[in-house]
Amino acid sequence: MNKIIKYGFTRLDLLVTIASVILLIFVAIVLYRQHHISSAELRCRFNIQHIDRAILSYALDNGVFPAAGRRDKPVTNDWIHWQNGRKLEESAVKVLDPKEGVKTLLCPLDTKSRYRTYPYSYTMNLNLEKKPYSKIIQQPNLILVYEEEHPNDGACAPDAPDDIPALRHRYKTLVGRVDGTVELIRRSEAVKEERYKPKIK
C-alpha cells in the first residue's frame, strides 16, 4: 500500500516567512527615509548656494553687501525684501529660478515655516550688511548665509539668543560662505566669532 505524502507549510515555515517580509518592509522604510533625508539635504545645499551667489553678485555689482534688516528695524534695501508690500523680484536674490520661486528660500526639512511671520529658512549674516565688498579681508570660512532654527527676520547674529543656526541635517547646520561654497558644520563651529565677524581693511 502506497503511503500518502502531504505537502504544506509548518507553523515554523509561516513564522520565518512572515518575519522575513516584516524585515524587508522595515529595510525598505529605512532606505526610503534615508533617501528622503539625503534628497532634502541636497535641495537645501542648492538653495543656500543659490542665495549665497545671488548676494555675492549683488555685492559685486553694488560695491557693498545688501542690508540685513531686523524685524524691529526694517530697511528699504533688505536683501530679501521680506517686509509687507515688498516684492521678491526687487531684492538682491531676484535671480532666483522663476520655476522654483519661493521654494528656493525654504529648506524641505523646515516644517515650521508656515507658522512664522518670516516664513523663509535662511538669513544673512548681520555683520556683513552694507559692508564694502572690496574692504573685507579674504576669509574663505566667513559665513554669509545661515540656515536658522527659528528665523524671525532676514538677519542672523549667531551670538544673539534668538538667532540659533538650525540642526536639520544630521544634527549639523548648513551655511553658505563668502567664497560661494556651502558647508555642513557643527553649531559650535557656526557661532565662532571668526566665522561670522568679518575683518575689514
- Biggest sheet layout: 5 strands, mixed
Oligomer: single chain
Structural domain tally: 1
Name the poorly predicted regions. none
Encode the helix/strand succession as letters. Answer: HEEEEEHH
What share of residues are in beta strands? 5-15%
Structure summary, number of beta strands: 5
The share of residues in helices is: 25-40%
Assign the structural class, choosing from mainly alpha, mainly beta, alpha/beta, alpha+beta, or little secondary structure: alpha+beta
Strand order of the largest sheet: 3-1-2-4-5
Q: What's the rounded overall pLDDT mean?
A: 84
> Which term fits the overall shape?
elongated
Number of DSSP helices? 3
What is the alpha-carbon Rg in Å?
24 Å
- Cα separation of the termini: 105 Å
In a few lines, what is going on in this structure?
It is built from three helices and five strands, in the order H-E-E-E-E-E-H-H. By secondary structure, it is α+β, with helices and mostly antiparallel strands. The longest helix is centred in the N-terminal third of the chain and has 52 residues, at 11-62.
Describe the protein:
- This protein is α+β, with helices and mostly antiparallel strands.
- It has one domain (11-196).
- 30% of the residues lie in helices and 10% in strands.
- The chain has three helices and five strands.
- It has helices at residues 11-62, 187-190, 193-196, and strands at 122-125, 143-147, 155-156, 173-177, 182-185.
- The chain has a five-stranded mixed β-sheet.
- A hairpin with a 4-residue loop joins β4 (173-177) and β5 (182-185).
- The longest helix is centred in the first third of the chain and has 52 residues, at 11-62.
- The protein is elongated and about 95 Å long.
- The chain starts with 10 loop residues before the first helix and ends in a 5-residue tail after the last helix.
- The mean pLDDT is 84.
